[in-house]
Fold:
Amino acid sequence: MTGQSNAMDSFADGEERITDHLELLATMGRDFAASLDIDKTLARAVARITGHLDAAGGALFLLDEAGETLRCHACCGATEITGMTLAADAGIVGRCVQNNVGEVVHDTTDDPGFNPGVDAQTGYTTRSILCAPMSVQDQRIGAIELINKRSGDALFTDDDLHVLQTLASSAALAILNARMAEALVEQERVRRELELAAEIQRSLLPEPGDDSFPVHGVNVPARTVSGDFYDFFALADGRICFNLGDVSGKGMNAALLMAKTASLYRCLGKTVPEPGRLLAVLNDEIAETATRGMFVTMVAGVYDPATGSVRLANAGHEPPLFHGRDDTFTAVPAGAPPLGISPSPVPGVPLPENELNLDGGALYVFTDGVTEGFVDGGDTLEVGGLKALIREHGSATIPVRLAAVIDRITRGDTTLRDDLTILAIDDGREAENRPVGNETSSEDGGEVLLALTVPAQAGRLKQVRGAVAEAMSRCPCDAQTARDLVLAVDEACQNVIRHAYRDEAQGEIVLEIRCEPGRLIFRIRDFAPPIDTGRVRPRDLDDVRPGGLGTHLIREVMDEVAYSAPPGGGNLLRMVKRMP
Amino acid sequence: MKHEVTERAGTTVVAFAGDVDLQNSPQARKVLLEAVAGEHPVLVDLSGVDYIDSSGVASLVEALQTARKRDLGFALVAVSESALRVFQLAHLDKVFTIHGTLDDAFADNR
Structure:
């Protein structure tokens, strides 16, 4: 009876303890769920567990991220060891974590794995240990260790271990949840920062002009931030500077280099309206500081709505497409390597430039994200597809045309592979407003300062210079301007000799200089086959033929430069110099 | 246009005089490229040049680029105001090293 009674007592006692365990587990669960501060909650949990299992002390160890060190995050009772660190395999707790198995050690002196170092530090004597690992699936988090059972025979039981293991599992889950929540908060912070970066990037792009403005651009980033950029702005004289670039790579590093390059362009573009020289300056600046082999492909240009002419420099970028009024397409190839690869061999030498007259057509500059973008059916758009889209929407306004291109790709390419950027310079509206009569002689009045016809030969240039210098001495211009004008006329005649008559030393040049109030008008006529002024004419300083550099000098000196085909054949160059 | 090539203190001195224009620049180019094909640094004396055009400037740029590739010194000397103006219009005035006189050029290199 007695035995039975004892058994009953023991049963009743056991039942009560199980209820207690569940109670504790529930309390801990509630505590973890409501907690904002995981460290405080863990400290409370350790105190509760230590009290519940009647141990002299308890400690909770967490494994660091590298899995090399165990650190005491919370403890209670016998000794204060919060912050203490141990090697991940040191002592009973280390063994327990490594094997991921709970342990009951009745007598530490019998266990060769026991680490007496801690007792040596604290002055406390650890006799028995109960230790349960904290892990979730295979992920090891740490362990809870209790020391020196106080009640009964002062020995921890297997039941105690079961209870501790249950509590440890619950704590492990809570710790993992807290860590995941922390990671989410961090992710959210990074996402917000990316969005701020994207906002700043968008602010680097120009404000869209109204539909009548001849230059428009679109940028659609593949990720939050973009490595592409474009910009355009009008100069005081009415010309419009534009650029479009693509930084190698994607993501934050590309975005930062994009921001730098776009800012440099903004800053320098207004003072250096010569695209070749501007890109040379940008190249040296980027090459000096660019890291990890990053580079920038870029097209920079200046468009003159008054004449339709475009000066263009291309550093390793996709060839821009010129869509002429006659519905033909011409690609304008790159004349130089991308920016940032290496400093120019001779600093200050401009990149080669192309010059073309849009003459009512449109120029499209775009990144490879456009031509390599997926369209319906999994094919890439390619240059051919782009041309077809431009033709299809040719009668629409430029913003509508660009939107059609972007729509075609964003519809087919559900997750964009690359940033999409496209810029268009449309001369159509400007060309309609342009007076067509400026090639007829009757328009220019004033006093004729010089009328000279000479054979188109290099040997005659000295004579031309002398005649122009003499004519300049009869008009109110200073010596410096006079010399500049002599040079410009010489260069214009050289172009006729070299490019119109192609060095054949036959044919004539007719030169006329008129003086009107406030301006000098120079007309240089030849009788060679018409040169196609709309055709792309390269200017390359490596190529030492004088034509390109000469054209540059003419434009530096003169205020207006226009070619036309006069009645009766040949070519007419009309140049105007405004006088104060 | 006239030209003269002399040696002074281990340096090749190329002097031009007259107009360096489309008619003469092929000759100027030939002389310059021969000079930078040698083993000595090159000074180009432009004190006698009244007029230079884009073809003359282009020849000098080509010679400069060749000299740079071969690690040879290359500088201009005594560029007249009117010639300097052409370099400025071409934005090439900062590209070339320009000395006031031949003596300055030798003093600077010492």
About this structure: Residues 205-433 of chain A form a domain with the Phosphatase 2c; domain 1 fold (CATH 3.60.40.10). Residues 1-12, 437-442, 534-547 of chain A have pLDDT under 50 and may be disordered. The two ends of chain A are 129 Å apart (CA to CA). Chain A touches chain B at residues 274, 277, 345-350, 458-459, 461-462, 465, 480, 483-484, 487, 490-491, 494, 497-498, 541-542, 544-546, 549-550, 552-553, 556-557 (CB under 8 Å).
